[in-house]
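Good day; I would like, with your permission, to put a structural problem before you. A protein sequence and the structure tokens that stand for its backbone fold form the material at issue. Thank you for your consideration; the sequence and its tokens are set out here:
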Amino acid sequence: MALQKWTFTVAAEDSTLRLDQLVAQRTGLSRRAAREALKLGGVQVDRKRMRVAGRLLKAGTEVRVAFDPDLPPVPEMAIPVVFEDPWLLAVDKPAGLATQGTWASDRHDLLALLKAQRPDLKLFLHHRLDQGTSGLLLFAKDAAANPGLATAFASRDMEKLYLARLSEPLGACTVEAPIGRLRGADPGRFGCVGDLLEPKSARTDFRPATGEETAGLVPGHYVVARLHTGRTHQIRVHLAHLGHPILGDTLYGGAPSDRLWLHAWRLGLKHPVTGDDLRLEAPPARFRA
């Protein structure tokens, strides 16, 4: 069963109901499922997650509910740290893990696991990776790094390299084509052509990966992608636009596989506080033969 979502407004006659009762009554979920949705963060009251099952709500309050009966247990894993100093934390995100909370849960994501692993830290998120994509994510852990890191990610001078595996070889090329959400697409996706909502400029450079770069990996056709902008699904959309979708990226026409073959590989930037050159790398371990 797929993710289910509801939005409703509390009626006057509902104001005496506990929140778990209200959710069950207005969605058709069982009380047990309603409490599970609350526990996982799948209930929002006036756009804020609410977990208190006994809360009473005033008439006119907006409630949003999301419930995914197929969610696995909350994961327990150590997130590998690639780099850390007083201002920054870089980690290697496992594939299959959302970067931050989803509609149905704020306990199944990378940020939640990092908070459990390092409760002493307050992390500031400046970029994201798709759920199926593995690799480097860089956080600020001190507010002093926020302005410089935001500027770095907005700059085309930052080096952001990804490794992708395709079904067929692709020569070196640059795609400079706007990306926007495709109106009415179900499931939701993005594109370079068609009826696009709020298209924004996007540029990606592609080149074949060298033998040295792919040594020890599952044999295949690999490309290195360099992002000059940071649009949602940018590499996936630009490769699909070229007619060379990523292996395993069935949303964009890629051949089926047991994984999405996309990995955030390297980051190069000026340190936002010290100004030193910073070169980070997360080897694509899950691509190894």
